[in-house]
Amino acid sequence: MRRETDMIVLDRNQICAKGDAPHKIRSIILDHSVMLPDHAFHITSDLNWLRYLKQAEFLKKIISPRSKVLDLGCGLGFTTALLASYCEAIDILGVDIKKHSTWKDLKEFGCDFCVCDANSLPFLPDSFEVIVSFGVMEHTESEMEFLEEVNRCLQSGGYNILFQLPNRYSFSEYLSRKMGLWHHERTYSGGEIRKQIKNGGFDIMFMAREHIIPAQVHRVSRGLGDIFDKNHRGINNLDAILCKTPLSIFSQDYMLISKKYHALP
Predict the structure, then answer these.
(1) What's the Cα-to-Cα distance from 165 to each of 1, 136, 143, 169, 185, rounded to whole Å?
(2) What CATH number has the domain bearing residue 181?
(3) Residue 115: inside a domain, yes or no?
(4) Which of 28, 67, 144, 167 has the largest count of CB atoms under 10 Å?
(5) What is the torsional sign of CA 188, 192, 198, 200?
(6) What's the rounded Cα separation, in Å, for the pair 102 and 116?
């Protein structure tokens, strides 16, 4: 049985077989993650990676060409690079609280990176038309300060798009806690998210629960992880169906699109 700190090594040649940008981005991250196995599970899982690609495809329909975009709390930078490759001619910057070795190689996809604190951004007011974050707000010292900074740096009518806000009633979070695996200390109900987003000066345009079936099963069993990898597209399709049923209350996370309707005092 594999545990969370076990290293998972994938065949890089197989990953890059198609030679397209997403495969190259994934390969870059995996090459750097060999020395950081604790950071690799959301990349090594084919199901989890497919979910990131689906989110990038979703954002491609929302982000207008030539928009100024901030990927807030970008971590290793693969979401920034994916958006740069999926969205037409956008000016995108990824920021994180510390510098990552992957950033240098990912710049070839048309993105840039810098180090800063999400709760104290070094940008002028109204600097961006879109600010996107993937599983960030729950890790900040203060959600309100985080949202205040997003509001300040967004143009009027700009989009604040959040993915992977952990659901308080998540099945996968419950399993992780019971099995002693890493899990979120801070989780949210839908009502709490709506209240915080409104208090931050945003109108919610769309909100949904996502991902009932756990993706990072390699953390528990390499054999189960291999089964998931071989069937990741079918599992993803099944997961999409389940998310349209009442079982969605047990989904892993929330995503939402909100629009800045006024600047905070």
Answers:
(1) 29, 8, 12, 12, 12
(2) 3.40.50.150
(3) yes
(4) 167
(5) negative
(6) 17
Contact 33, 43 (CB under 8 A): yes
Element (H, E) at 207: strand 202-210
User: For each of the chain's 265 residues, which pLDDT tens digit applies?
Assistant: 333 333 333 343 333 333 489 999 998 888 877 655 555 667 888 999 999 999 999 999 999 999 999 999 999 999 999 999 999 889 999 999 999 989 999 999 999 999 999 999 999 999 999 999 999 999 988 999 999 999 999 999 999 999 999 999 998 888 888 777 767 788 999 999 999 999 999 999 999 999 999 887 887 778 888 898 899 999 999 999 999 999 999 999 999 999 998 777 6
Structure-token match 């695996």, residue found = 181
Domain interval for residue 162: 12-260
Is 4 among the domain residues? no
